């Protein structure tokens, strides 16, 4: 599927940084579009919509629905990062964004932003993306109206 999965299966360290995001989430999609533009010249930054690759994180024990709830990154060491830690991993790779990684890595700021992401942002974005999901999609509990 991707270099990172083949690297993991082959028990080698990943040669890329792969971001897994919910492509139905308008905020997530917008951020990924901006980051792709900034990192356009970096060939080993990979971006994967978990709606197109639903089992991509299964080797980490994460199913599609869990993957849709938070942004995930498999970094160059093969470690899985989620939420704020995933964003920090992305920013470390992008030119002119490394200062964000340094700032959000500070203990107090990291803790505060992790709480905000887990308790506020991720649930709101998940609800928004589910509300925008077309009828018949795999989004659970989506009711049809006539």
Identify the notable features of this structure and list them briefly:
Glutaredoxin; 146 residues; 47% helix; four-stranded mixed β-sheet; 11% strand; 6 helices; alpha+beta; disordered C terminus
Tell me what you see in this structure.
With 146 residues, the chain is of the alpha+beta class. The termini are far apart. The protein has a four-stranded mixed sheet with strand order 2-1-3-4, with helices on one face. It has one domain: Glutaredoxin (3-Layer(aba) Sandwich). Helices cover 47% and strands 11% of the residues. It has six helices and four strands; from the N terminus they run αβαβαββααα. It has helices at 3-9, 26-38, 64-69, 84-93, 98-104, 107-132, and strands spanning 17-21, 45-49, 72-74, 80-82. Helix 4 runs antiparallel to helix 5. Residues 138-146 have low confidence and may be disordered. The radius of gyration is 16 Å and the shape is globular.
